[in-house]
Amino acid sequence: MNAAIDVAAGSDCHDYFFELARVLAISYEEVFSKLCDLWVGDESNKESVKEFIGKLETLAA
Fold first, then answer.
1. What does each C-alpha distance from 24 to 3, 29, 61 come to in angstroms?
2. Is the pLDDT of residue 31 over 90?
3. Where are the domains of the chain?
């Protein structure tokens, strides 16, 4: 994992997760899904997650 992060670290910010997925040999969607699960599951992000969901709900309305 550290090697994958090191390789992706030199990427443009728009390509970072695509590069990370490529180096890990998993899909971009899987990388993003796992990262979202980690973010949502971290108790210290509770307020940020609520705010994010609220903004999504506003956009969907």
1. 9, 12, 37
2. yes
3. 2-60
| Interatomic CA distance for residues 41 and 11, integer angstroms | 27
Tokens of 39: 């973010």
The predicted model gives 9-17 an average pLDDT of: 74
| DSSP assignments along 5-55, one per residue | HHHHHTS-TTTHHHHHHHHHTS-HHHHHHHHHHHHHH-GGGHHHHHHHHHH
Q: Are 24 and 31 contacting, i.e. CB atoms less than 8 angstroms apart?
A: yes
Mean pLDDT of the chain: 86
pLDDT of residue 15: 82
